[in-house]
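Quick question, first post here. What does this chain look like in 3D?
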Amino acid sequence: MTIVWRCPMTAHEYAAAGRAAPIPRPDCPACAEPMIFFGFYTRPLRLGEEELRLLVRRARCRACQGTHALLPDFVTAFRLDGIEVIGAVIASMVDGTTVAVAATSAGVPFTTARDWRRRFLARADLLARGFLAATVALGALVDYVPSGLAEAALFAISALGGAARRRFGAGAGGDWRVANRIVGGCLLSTNANPPWTVT
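> Answer (accepted):
Ran it through. Tokens below.
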């Protein structure tokens, strides 16, 4: 499993810091007991045509023995590309840019951008409803939502990011990082279970 944490660094700063990156030690999401750090693993992160190698710390719960990867909020689970790259491509395609043009401008393969678009459209209704609910929970008002599902999901991500920054300050991060944290890094994953679907 993964835990996505708010990272104040850019991807380049995080990669350069290596083992010295200041990573918070979380409580176990299953039993709420403090976790201990449990080694590292390396993973690639593609930012357009550039690829970084990241050290990702793992944590283990002594009580229930569960282990979790601690992902900085610019990393998506099960995806090679950073969330800000993914977000920019999705936003441009929703605004009418073709898949080919969006993929070329971001420096990603056509099939990758096409898959992001397909997954985002498939989950747009769920994402819009969930992110709007989270926006309201942060104390913001939502007075207008676009009629299209993809447009509504983009609007909800923007509204959520704005509400988070008003509530917690600029350190809350950009819109896509906030959204990525809320869904545990699984914005486009087929097995994502956002918190608002848990009963």
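Strands lie at 2-5, 35-47, 50-61, 67-72.
The chain has a mean pLDDT of 90.
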